[in-house]
């Protein structure tokens, strides 16, 4: 898919219009409607009776700690069971979104029937996943995840990354939205000097909250869509001057100058968002997925703005933002109820159910013919436009090398905030990485 087509899909936000069919006459329409209603009632009754008489089925849907998704699918699972009384859907919360917890389940031969998966984790779990090529939901999904020629996951959302900020704070301190990294650092310095607010809220106690920086930053600064694949061919990619090195030094400056507060490693993700939502922090870097949570707690976006984290040295370089599909749903091929799991997955992506989901999440649709009215992001992406950056997140070589080298960008970021020397860190990384590259050849 071209970037232009992706950009159109991501940023086009329209209204869904409803066609109104007119009958040949009032009496004919009423008779037809009455007959249709009777037929629908009979069909529903027959389907319910058939389902009720079928053998009981219990499916587990594993979702990482994404409260909005857990709440939504917990309620929808009840609707599904009302339609199919013999089927029970248990929504199970897993403690991380990196796939580590599922590795434990995989080793114990206890994988859930359906589960959320990040793009980078597909190479780890591909042998356990059921191909989904024959599903109608696959045919309509614009960003279906294909591994080794087979569709293994269907993403529920696509989104971009942003820095959320409070315009009232910027206005009071006469600050401009930064368009380069030097400007971003300058804004944080001025906020720190003012002393009223934490410049940038980071919940460093939960290591994954560093992902906009250490996980995505080097990709964006490289401008290389195949960054991960090329990284897996380089025996020493973490040296001075590399994009990794530049982002590592950015984090070191944020840490050393306390731009994320006096001790960001003692702050959890929930505490970091609470700090921002209470107006005690001026900025927070998170994805489009954060907006519904903010609205659920604050109830208004009157004092909320968003701009792309400017991973560029000057304004002559392109301004990009990481844009990706996520919340991939896959099926365990060894599930005892694969057919029912497929039926439930089809239902998750059925038009009415999916429209309700994407409206609730306020992210961009992955399904042809389904759009979401999203005035907040429409406003701010028009004010601070960017080019979506899309990268290859499922490279097999990178998955093997990074696993062998125990490469974890989140823990790396934590270690930088804990005071580890970047030179020592890069030397250790290159030693492990070089050995891993050799073993993969």
Automatic annotation (TrEMBL):
PROSITE patterns (alphabetical): PROKAR_LIPOPROTEIN
Gene3D superfamilies: Periplasmic binding protein-like II
Swiss-Prot/TrEMBL keywords: Cell membrane, Lipoprotein, Membrane, Palmitate, Signal
Presence of the UniProt keyword Signal in the record: yes
Domain of life: Bacteria
Annotated InterPro entries: Bact_solute-bd_prot1, SBP
Span of the signal peptide: 1-22
Protein name as it appears in the record: Raffinose/stachyose/melibiose transport system substrate-binding protein
Organism for this UniProt entry: Paenibacillus taihuensis
């Amino acid at each position: 898919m071209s970037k232009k087509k992706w950009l159109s899909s991501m940023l086009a936000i329209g209204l869904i219009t409803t066609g109104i069919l007119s009958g040949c006459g009032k009496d004919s329409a009423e008779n037809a409607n009455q007959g249709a209603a009777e037929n629908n009632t009979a069909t529903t009754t027959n389907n319910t009776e058939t389902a009720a008489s079928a053998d009981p089925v219990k499916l587990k849907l594993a979702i990482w700690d994404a409260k909005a998704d857990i709440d939504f699918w917990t309620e929808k699972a009840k609707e599904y069971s009302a339609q199919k009384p013999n089927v029970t859907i248990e929504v199970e919360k897993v403690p991380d979104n990196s796939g580590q917890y599922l590795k434990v389940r995989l080793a114990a031969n206890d994988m859930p029937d359906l589960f959320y998966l990040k793009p980078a984790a597909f190479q780890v779990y591909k042998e356990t996943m059921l191909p989904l090529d024959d599903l109608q939901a696959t045919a309509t999904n614009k960003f279906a995840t294909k591994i080794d020629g087979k569709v293994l996951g269907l993403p529920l959302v696509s989104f971009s990354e942003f820095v959320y900020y409070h315009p009232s704070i910027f206005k009071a301190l006469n600050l401009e939205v930064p368009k380069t990294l030097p400007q971003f650092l300058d804004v944080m310095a001025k906020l720190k000097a003012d002393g009223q607010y934490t410049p940038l809220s980071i919940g460093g106690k939960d290591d994954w909250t560093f992902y906009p920086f250490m996980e995505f930053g080097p990709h964006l600064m490289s401008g290389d869509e195949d960054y991960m694949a090329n990284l897996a061919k380089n025996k020493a990619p973490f040296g001075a001057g590399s994009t990794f090195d530049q982002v590592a030094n950015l984090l070191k400056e944020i840490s050393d100058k306390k731009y994320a507060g006096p001790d960001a490693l003692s702050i959890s993700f929930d505490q970091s968002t609470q700090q921002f939502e209470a107006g005690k922090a001026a900025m927070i870097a998170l994805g489009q997925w954060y907006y519904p949570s903010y609205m659920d707690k604050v109830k208004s976006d009157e004092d909320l703005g968003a701009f792309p984290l400017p991973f560029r040295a000057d304004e002559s370089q392109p301004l990009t933002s990481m844009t990706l599909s996520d919340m991939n749903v896959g099926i365990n091929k060894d599930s005892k109820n694969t057919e029912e799991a497929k039926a439930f997955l089809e239902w998750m992506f059925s038009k009415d159910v999916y429209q309700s989901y994407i409206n609730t999440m306020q992210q961009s649709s992955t399904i042809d013919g389904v759009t979401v009215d999203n005035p907040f992001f429409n406003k701010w992406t028009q004010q601070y436009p960017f080019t979506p950056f899309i990268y290859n997140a499922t490279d097999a070589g990178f998955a093997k090398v990074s696993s062998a080298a125990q490469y974890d960008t989140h823990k790396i970021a934590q270690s930088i905030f804990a005071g580890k020397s970047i030179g020592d860190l890069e030397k250790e990384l290159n030693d492990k990485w070089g050995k891993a590259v050799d073993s993969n050849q």
